Task: structure prediction
Amino acid sequence: MDTAALKEKVIECLKTIYDPELPVNIYELGLIYEVEVLPVNNVQIVMTLTSPACPAAQSIPVEVDQKVRTVEGVNDVYVSVTWSPAWDKSMMSEAAQLELGYL
Result:
C-alpha cells in the first residue's frame, strides 16, 4: 500500500474518535494538526486538545494511538500533543461548525 492510501486510512480511523464533550470527531474539530506516514509505514500524528484542562487530555491521545495501530498496514505509531498553535473554533471544519451551531 502506498503512503497516500495509508494516510487516508489513518484519517478515516481518526474520524471515528470523538471528543467526549462534543458530538464531533477529533479530525473535524481540527484537533489533528499533522498525519505523516514515515518510512516502513510508521505513522506520526501531531495533535492538540480543545484546552490544556480538557477532561479527556489523558484519554484522547491514548485512544488515537490504540486505534491507529489497528489500521491495516500501520507498523508503529507516534502521537505527540502540542499546544502551539492553540486550538480555537476557527480550526473546525465547516461540517463541525454547522453541527455545533457556529454557522
